[in-house]
Amino acid sequence: MGAAMEMTTQEAADLLNVSRQYLVRLVEEGKLVCRKVGGHRRLKRGDVLAFKEQRDRERKRSLASLAELTEDLAGYGELK
Question: Interior CA angle at 62 toward 16 and 17, to 5°?
Fold first, then answer.
């Protein structure tokens, strides 16, 4: 597997805009897969991008749901 296809934990964390420690926790929880090279973890770039896309979709759904709930509770109805 080429180096361009793999990322270090720091590179993956930077891509996801999270701390390296949080990314390592995601790996330990099985939410992201890695392989060990010596004592270092390497993640497939495609896996990290797929995780990011899924996370972003879930965030958008949650935000839309929250906005709808707020409108239903008349939080923004007066501003229209």
Answer: 10
**What CATH number was assigned to the domain covering residues 3-72?**
1.10.1660.10
Query: In this structure, is the dihedral angle defined by the CA atoms of residues 70, 73, 75 and 76, taken in order, positive or negative?
Result: positive
Angle value at C-alpha 11, between 54 and 38, nearest 5 degrees: 110
What's the pLDDT tens digit per position in 59-78? 999 998 888 888 877 765 55
Q: Where are the domains of the chain?
A: 3-72
Tell me the whole-structure pTM to 2 decimals: 0.75
Looking at residue 73, its amino acid is L
Taking the C-alpha atoms of residue 74 and residue 2, their distance in angstroms, rounded to an integer, is 54
More confident residue, 27 or 68: 27
The set of residues, in sequence order, having a beta carbon less than 8 Å from that of 73 and lying 6+ positions away, is none
What are 63's two structure tokens?
A: 């935000």
